[in-house]
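User: Can you help me understand a structure? I only have the sequence.
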Amino acid sequence: MIKAELRKQFLAERKALSAEEVEHRSQVIAEQFFSRDDIFSNRMSSLAIHTFLPIIRQHEVNTWPIIHRIWRELPHAKVAVSVTDAVSQTLTHYPLTPETLLGENRWGIPEPTASEQLALGSEKIDIVLVPLLAFDLTGHRVGYGGGYYDRFMAQCRPDCLKLGLSLFEPVDEIQDIELTDIRLYGCLTPTHTYWFARESS
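Assistant: Let's start by predicting it. Here is the structure, written out as tokens:
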């Protein structure tokens, strides 16, 4: 299937889920994230972990259970989130702490409203938790179509772990892949962790 068809299908499938089911699946994904030694390796306490903040009304994976557990259990790890610039179509990343003030942007995405902290460069990030609507068995994904995360991930280090979070299992193939599409290294769903071959750098 092509991206437009998959985007329409999975937006409808997410909308059909109850809020309780979205929360349940999100909790299971969070448990998988922290149970994987291959995610954290030996750098667990000092990681810089970038995450998206969920648009609740869009039934996105709720990443707050992951964030709160990082704050509780990994005090030396950094959590980063983005501010979206619609003019330049880029993301700027800032540390997220329990004291960070958040507001919603034009798309309903929670963002820091007045960060006094310095922006965090993409090259400093060790793990990116990537939002998506669908993904396939080779690690390609379908997002909302703006390309923000592809541009962001293209700036990350080759060893940065690009990890999708999905409420659903993969489709066989996304047919209209473009050269600018950045593949995931892995994807967590409520039932599986999928790993994809990394491209040589």
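Now, to help you interpret it: The CA atoms of residues 32 and 188 lie 7 Å apart. The first strand starts at residue 48 and ends at 50. Let me know which part you'd like to focus on.
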